[in-house]
Amino acid sequence: MAEKLKNTILEAVREVIPDRGRVGLHEPELKGNEAAYLTRCIESNWVSYLGEYVERFERELAELTNTSHAIVMVNGTVALHAALLVAGVEPGDEVLVPSLTFVASANAVSHCQAIPHFVDSEERTLGINPDALQAHLEEIAELRDGVCYNRHTGRVIRTVIPVHIFGHPVRMKELQQVAKNFGLVIVEDAAESLGSKMNGRPLGGDGLMGVLSFNGNKIVTTGGGGAVVTNNKTVAARLKHLTTTAKTAHPYAFNHDEIAYNYRMPNINAAVGCAQLEQLDDFIARKRKLADRYANAFASLEGAQFFSEPHGASSNYWLNAILLDDQDISARNEVLEHLIEAKLQCRPVWTPMHQLPIYKSAPRASLSVCEAIAARLINLPSSPFLADRTLTSEE
Ligand SMILES: *Cc1c(COP(=O)(O)O)cnc(C)c1O
């Protein structure tokens, strides 16, 4: 069974990526103005926290996400941490997080000394299922004076973190309704979805805050980096203050009005980010072309399907994925190993958070869909350059 499946899957991938040696999962591409802008930083001596590129990068990120403010930081994890603090998450609170996510979404909750409460995903978006969340909260939560409490643990449930997995939008309208029903603040983890749209609107601006990442494997990189975007001026000012040591304005005195963080992004990273943003449209066009080729190659394959963007979405297809029909981890691993042997860097989705020993005692909803997806999903090589192959005579 797995024998036949692994061969047909490799053949399908080979239709898209001819055998030319090792292929990474998602490689950064720095062929624009990155070197020129970096040189400008060095020649002008503006390498640290102040400088033209930080401001420009923030302005452009706000524009891209259709928000009014962006605050850049050293990585996406600390950006999530800062966003949760500003959202009012306090030690001992619970925060609703999909179990099917990268560990940073849950860790940022722990960094607030709060507790992640894992909720289920849905197959059509790979993100939080708003209907299942509504049903779960009806069962375990109650509102008192507009504050949501977990009746089993007695803790406040403050916030929900939808994650746009692999760039595919969560059903935000429905999620916003659930958040309203239960008095929850939304912090969007849009780390993977820069440039994705739903009904023509960019992701990241639907919650009180949206969080971006510019890690080396993301669609746009600054080496390492992150940002929080928001439409709320007070929130933006609070984020800036909290992530820049809470220094009060003064011509020379160093006074700090709370114990805060140094999460600032240096100008040299922002310089790379500005150059990368100039290429974002091109990256997305090529990644969508690549996804289209995968979709065609897998169209009539039995035993697995290519994951296509949800209805109404225009995804950045950060990482391409296939879902095997059967929920069989050993078959999935055989397929994975076969692809890896062929020098194609493929991987399973992250181990669901509730299955990690570090989060084994965290509160949770029923997570059957999350577990089924995790057992069936394989990510395929997704670098934009893979769409650039010139057509050969064999094709
Ligand atoms: C990459 C990522 C992050 C964190 O970003 P870093 O910049 O690596 O800290 C958070 N959430 C998700 C879903 C991610 O994919």
Characteristics:
36% helix; seven-stranded mixed sheet; alpha/beta; four-stranded antiparallel sheet; 395 residues; 16 strands; 2 domains; Aspartate Aminotransferase, domain 2; binds pyridoxal-5'-phosphate; Aspartate Aminotransferase, domain 1; single chain
**How many beta-strand runs?**
16
Structural class: alpha/beta
Give the overall silhouette. globular
On the 0-100 scale, what is the average pLDDT? 96
As for the CATH topology of the largest domain, it is Aspartate Aminotransferase, domain 2
Structural account:
This protein is of the alpha/beta class. The protein has 2 domains: 3-30 and 280-387, Aspartate Aminotransferase, domain 1, CATH 3.90.1150.10; 34-277, Aspartate Aminotransferase, domain 2 (3-Layer(aba) Sandwich), CATH 3.40.640.10. 36% of the residues lie in helices and 16% in strands. The protein contains 12 helices and 16 strands. It has helices at 2-16, 34-44, 52-64, 76-86, 103-111, 130-140, 172-181, 233-243, 267-277, 280-298, 329-341, 368-376; strands at 69-73, 94-98, 115-119, 141-144, 147-150, 157-160, 185-189, 197-198, 201-202, 209-213, 226-230, 304-306, 313-314, 320-324, 347-348, 377-380. It is globular. The model is unreliable at 391-395 (pLDDT under 50). The structure holds pyridoxal-5'-phosphate (PLP).
Topology:
Elements: H1 2-16, H2 34-44, H3 52-64, E1 69-73, H4 76-86, E2 94-98, H5 103-111, E3 115-119, H6 130-140, E4 141-144, E5 147-150, E6 157-160, H7 172-181, E7 185-189, E8 197-198, E9 201-202, E10 209-213, E11 226-230, H8 233-243, H9 267-277, H10 280-298, E12 304-306, E13 313-314, E14 320-324, H11 329-341, E15 347-348, H12 368-376, E16 377-380
Parallel strand pairs: 2-3, 2-6, 6-7, 7-10
Antiparallel strand pairs: 1-11, 4-5, 8-9, 8-13, 10-11, 12-14, 14-16, 15-16
Helix pairs in contact: 1-10, 1-11, 2-9, 3-9, 4-5, 6-7
Bound molecules: pyridoxal-5'-phosphate.
